[in-house]
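User: quick one, fold this
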Amino acid sequence: MKIKCGFVAVVGKPNAGKSSLINAIIGEKVSIVSPKPQTTRNNILGIYNSAHSQIVFVDTPGINKTATGLDKFMQKSIKGAVSDVNVVVVVCDITKGVQRTELDLVEKYNKGKIPVVLVLSKIDLVKDEVVFKTLQDLSPIADKCEIVPLSSSKGKNVDTLIEVVEKFLPEVDEKDRYFDQDEYTDKPLNFLVAEIVREKALYYLDREIPHGIAVVTQRFEESENIIEIDVDIVCDKSSHKAIILGKQGSMLQKIGHDARVTIQKIVQKKVMLNIFVKVKPNWKNNLEFLDSLGYNINEL
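Assistant:
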């Protein structure tokens, strides 16, 4: 039996809705979501499986100017993600309008002979008239890309996007799927645990700490009835540590509680989660530390 099978890079500006879209397509929590820009730091694979296709979506960091070593890693990872894919999906937040960045991306990949799909995300947050007007305004580039307006949170037109992407994928024998059908990401569970803790911390610390934390899983021990996990939240300054801890540890308790609930839903098992806060000044420029987190600039 033949199926459609291939890789799709998902690119766009910070907070365009890339991670939410991946999670909506896969039906599992693959990428973390936060109001903060640059929430996604690694290229994370989300694997969509159906009876007639396997689509490997690559969730990339938001396109941004580089400054720190971490920023440089994220921008290089975008280039790596689109170097060998079958389709590029450019995600645009329709509430902010289609800007020059998105149009340049469409033009760039179209010139490279890569099929492009322009996704207008978050249509549930605007009136139908805005969607219609945006589609009208995009008519000059309709021959360069497919255009799909959708809502990840409502699930509207997500299936349409999948159908559009499948048109551009090669046919292979079913036995030649890249991944087993029960796999939905390439990342190990201890990585997902660290990302979930980071998501909850970003949610609660949105205003207090400007994107200045890393999370590292130090221990992950699984037995028949329980998983014991130790993670470190790493921040730049002692003042940040105090904010993360909160008064009498109240903030850290909220972060830990929400993370544990989410992790338990994924693993379907009781979780004992211990979170420690450590200070590492200028960690985003510490190449050795970045390498330990999996952010190896030289490998890209």
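User: anything notable?
Assistant: The chain has nine helices and ten strands.
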